[in-house]
Specification:
12 helices; single chain; about 0% strand; mainly alpha
Length: about 280
């Protein structure tokens, strides 16, 4: 059920893409490449560090590392728009990190979590191909050959994605309620800290590469918001439901932090726009 739901989300994502989008990467290579590097360098290291800092069961540690090794989530595009970030860059980063994650997420998970549990990276690659790569390519081809005939489907795709994620998170939290109650004092702060550091270091990464404010916001959101649905699916398929628990909690925290930052940044941009209008009048 979880894998099928995620496949639907990835299919919807594919239907929003065109072959021309891949060419756009070449028009802003510095921002896209540095952003994707941040995604796969910063977050896995944060996840591994936090997982080992807190006294948690091994399955919870594995889940934290796994979700940190996942690509950016599609919700990041919406939050970037609300935060007055660079939406085009956000979409390109999500696209690139999602496709690269087919190989990188299993490899990084094995690298950082091998000391905790045995990780079958090749089996995870197969899962990534089935629930990420093929649906995205399928959606891309549907968009290429059906075009406007898919407009009605595209219009409801974001809502369907949200509902599917809610169902996945609800099912996992419900199934692991007792374990969460036993370890919430350490599990919740651990997942929260992972995302706070992700948002913060993502923003600083943009500064390091001397990018504009909009790009810095975009980096912050793309790095801080993970594809928790993908993490949940991989954890449930290759490990246990307990390993999926941090991934489910991650979905709540990154949306909460991202929404808060979007509100602050949007207000800041509005005030700046008002000041500029006043100066010019």
């Amino acid at each position: 059920m979880v894998a099928a739901g995620l496949g639907i989300i990835m299919l919807g994502m594919g239907m929003t893409l065109t072959f021309a989008d891949f060419g756009k990467v070449l028009k802003m290579p510095k921002a896209v490449v540095s952003g994707v590097l941040a995604q796969f360098l910063i977050m896995p290291l944060i996840g591994w560090s936090v997982a080992n800092l807190f006294a948690l069961p091994d399955q919870f540690k594995l889940g934290i590392i796994l979700v940190s090794c996942c690509p950016g989530g599609t919700a990041s595009n919406v939050v970037t728009y609300l935060a007055r970030g660079n939406l085009a860059l956000s979409v390109l980063m999500t696209m690139c990190s999602t496709l690269l994650a087919v190989g990188l997420t299993p490899i990084l998970t094995k690298t950082y979590a091998s000391a905790i549990l045995e990780v079958d990276a090749m089996a995870m690659v197969v899962s990534m191909v089935m629930i990420v790569l093929l649906p995205v390519i399928g959606g891309l081809l549907l968009n290429r050959y059906l075009g406007k005939k898919l407009d009605s489907v595209k219009s409801i795709a974001p809502l369907v994605s949200v509902l599917v994620i809610v169902l996945i998170v609800g099912a996992i939290v419900g199934a692991t309620k007792n374990a969460i109650e036993s370890h919430w004092q350490t599990l919740l702060p651990a997942v929260f800290i992972v995302h706070v550091l992700g948002f913060g270091l993502g923003y600083l990464w943009g500064k390091l590469f001397k990018l504009g404010e909009k790009e810095q916001r975009t980096f912050s959101i793309e790095v801080g918001m993970q594809n928790s649905g993908l993490g949940s699916s991989l954890a449930k398929t290759h490990f246990t439901m307990l390993a999926a628990t941090p991934c489910a909690i991650s979905a709540f925290f990154h949306c909460m932090i991202g929404s808060f930052l979007a509100s602050v940044w949007s207000r800041k941009s509005s005030l700046r726009d008002q000041d500029e209008v006043s100066k010019n009048s």
